[in-house]
Design brief:
Layout (H helix, E strand, L loop, with lengths): L1 H14 L16 E2 L5 E5 L8 E6 L10 E6 L13 H7 L2 H4 L3 E5 L18 H16 L2 E8 L10
Parallel strand pairs: 4-5, 4-6
Antiparallel strand pairs: 1-2, 2-3, 3-5
């Protein structure tokens, strides 16, 4: 039930416009391009226990003055773990960023992502990190609209139900 409430809260919050500045002072680190043509920002936030990455996949042809919808691809592992795959590489493999004219963003988390603020560890505030750091960072750095979606999957499988 808690997961369902958290998921509903996320959907409601993502539908609301956010301030581009957020609550946290943000430095705009320069992005580097990785081998998969994704922009990679290494960032530090008071809401995470250590540095994290924000990886961004833009359409190949970005039109000046156009704002693109954005899909946040959620990880199932901490850091750059890929045991269960890499959601952003799947998007690229299927050319979804070009087919749909959409920006895809893959944020990492310093600890196992549960997408809620830790009840007793203030260094692991994942919901706050996402809503007050990642989304405003992306909106201040890239030509994205306020049309936002979340994309994720569960590694637990149906047998766990």
């Amino acid at each position: 039930m808690r997961f369902l409430l958290t998921a509903i809260a996320w959907l409601f919050i993502l539908a609301a416009p956010l301030s581009a500045s957020g609550d946290e002072e943000q430095e705009m680190p320069k992005a580097r391009r990785d081998d998969d043509a994704c922009f990679v920002h290494i960032v530090e936030s008071q809401y995470q226990a250590g540095p994290t990455n924000i990886r961004v996949l833009l359409p190949d042809e970005v039109e000046v003055g156009r704002q693109y919808p954005v899909v946040y691809v959620l990880p199932v592992e901490p850091g750059r773990g890929t045991r269960w795959g890499d959601g952003l590489l799947e998007v690229k493999k299927h050319d979804l960023h070009n087919k749909h004219g959409t920006t895809f963003v893959f944020p990492t988390f310093s600890d196992l992502p549960w997408y809620a603020d830790h009840p007793s560890n203030p260094a692991i505030r994942q919901e706050t990190y996402f809503m007050k750091f990642v989304v405003p960072f992306v909106e201040a750095t890239y030509p994205v609209s306020d049309k936002r979606l979340l994309l994720g999957f569960s590694k637990s499988g149906w047998g766990a139900w």
